[in-house]
Write a structure and sequence with these properties.
Elements lengths: L4 H23 L6 H8 L3 H8 L2 H25 L4 H18 L3 H15 L1 H29 L7 H21 L6 H11 L8 H6 L1
Helix pairs in contact: 1-2, 1-4, 1-6, 3-4, 4-5, 4-6, 5-8, 5-9, 6-7, 7-8, 8-9
Length: 209
C-alpha cells in the first residue's frame, strides 16, 4: 500500500533534521546553507522552508528533538537510581552519553544555537525560552528530590536549577575537549556542593540528625 501524505511529510522532516545535524555540527550553522541541507537530505529547498520556515526553525527543531530524547533517556536512568548521587550521575551521563551517541554533535549544536541566539534578537528570545523550559523542568525534579530525600535546596528551585544547568553545561564543554579532566565523581561532587550537601549525602543520616 502507498504511504499517506502525513507519512511522506514525516519522512521529509526527519531527513532534513538528520542532514542538518550532520552539516551544522561539521561545518557550523552560518557556513551551512539551506540549499546544502536540502540537497544532503535529497529534498528541495522549498520543502525545508515549508516544514521549518528556514534554517532558524530547522536548528530549533533539531535541538528540540534531541532534548525530548534526552529527557526520555535521563528519565529511564533516574528510574534506576534510588539515592541522590545516582540521580546526579544520571543527569551528567544524560549529557555525556547523548553527545557520544550523536558523534559530539549535540554539544556543538547547543553552542551553535547559543552563538546564533546571542547575535540575533529573534533567536535570542527562542534561546532564552529553551533555557527557561529547562530550568522549569529541572526545578520540579529538584523539589521532588529534596522532599523525598529530606534536604533543603540552597535557593529557590528555579534559581538552583539554573545553577545546576550552568555547572553541567560548563563541565560538558570541558569534558568535550578532555574527558579525563572531569570524571563523573568530580562532577557529582560539584553538584552536591552546589546543593549545599557537602562531600556526601546519606538520607538515613539526614533523617536521624
Amino acid at each position: 500500500m502507498g504511504r499517506t501524505q502525513e507519512e511522506r511529510r514525516a519522512e521529509t522532516r526527519a531527513l532534513l533534521i538528520d542532514a542538518a545535524a550532520d552539516l551544522f555540527a561539521r561545518k557550523g550553522y552560518h557556513a551551512t546553507s539551506a540549499e546544502s541541507v536540502a540537497a544532503a537530505a535529497g529534498r528541495t529547498t522549498g520543502a525545508l522552508y515549508d516544514h521549518f520556515g528556514g534554517k532558524d526553525g530547522l536548528l530549533v527543531a533539531l535541538l528540540e528533538r534531541w532534548v525530548d530524547q534526552a529527557i526520555v533517556d535521563v528519565t529511564a536512568s533516574l528510574a534506576d537510581a534510588s539515592d541522590l548521587d545516582g540521580r546526579l550521575g544520571a543527569l551528567w551521563q544524560g549529557l555525556v552519553r547523548r553527545d557520544i551517541e550523536t558523534g559530539d554533535a549535540w554539544l556543538l549544536l547547543e553552542f551553535e544555537l547559543w552563538l546564533h541566539a546571542a547575535r540575533e534578537p529573534e533567536m535570542g528570545v527562542v534561546g532564552a525560552g529553551r533555557f527557561d523550559a529547562m530550568r522549569e523542568g529541572l526545578a520540579g525534579g529538584l523539589t521532588e528530590w529534596s522532599e523525598e530525600l529530606g534536604f533543603d535546596l540552597p535557593s529557590p528551585p528555579h534559581e538552583t536549577a539554573g545553577l545546576v544547568i550552568a555547572l553541567l553545561l560548563g563541565a560538558a564543554f570541558q569534558y568535550r575537549l578532555d574527558p579525563s579532566a572531569l570524571p563523573q565523581p568530580v562532577v557529582v561532587a560539584g553538584l552536591r556542593n552546589l546543593l549545599g550537601l557537602g562531600p556526601a549525602f546519606d538520607k538515613a543520616s539526614a533523617l536521624s540528625a
